[in-house]
Amino acid sequence: MLKIQVNNIALDYEDHGKGNVLLLLHGLGSTKKDWDAQVPFFSKTHRVITVDLRGHGASTKPQDAYGVELMTEDVKQLLDQLNIKKATLVGFSMGGAIAFEMAATHPEYLENLVIVNSGPDFNNMGKIGEDLLDKRTTFLETKGLEALAKEISFNMFPEDHQIDLRNEFETRCKNNDYNAYYKSFVTLMDWGLGDKIKDISARTLVVASDMDYTPIVFKEAYVNRMQNATLAVIKNSRHGVVLDQPDAFNLELQNFLKQ
């Protein structure tokens, strides 16, 4: 594990391989271990950087400083500190929001953009978003983080053969600092790109699972608003596609990078 000082915090990151840079951004309440099935595969051909975002894993957990914009600035400063001029940003779930924000505010850093089971407007998802915000905050406040970790993990990995994935993700999730998780979540649900999505010109791959929380038509709608985006759907997969269908995901990303 490596530490780097950015934006008044310390980020914990790993750096593997050589070549064009892939920067992999994990989901809410998780860590860089979301990418354990991608690092060995892609580090054969690329320089692969994974990072614990602020409030997560072994990175600093501020009391109040959270939000997609702050996390995006962290990522920009990380790239600056490592003297990386261009990278393909791959963002899963909350990491997708950060990748979107980076593409909108600092497009000069992007070689490509890859969005995985995420969206550009967490603050404008209609009833799905309203229910998620209400139910998860109520669940957290009444039952606690450990119970929430168990529920989220089961919903992501409900199959009998996924027990190891379920247990590993549950452990990562319940090990979160409560305040850091709560503030990361509520600030995420307050974030959105709005019309700025139309200005993103980076070549973009959007990866959707057929059994994700949000339907495929949700992803199709924003892909159609973008200048240079394509959609890939991975079957027999839920929200955590990088974990539950790593071979299929890796193939889609590899093909996109080769084009």
From TrEMBL:
Q: What does the UniProt keyword field contain?
A: Hydrolase
The name this protein carries in UniProt is Alpha/beta hydrolase
Domain AB hydrolase-1: start-end pairs? 20-177
Q: Name one GO molecular function term.
A: hydrolase activity
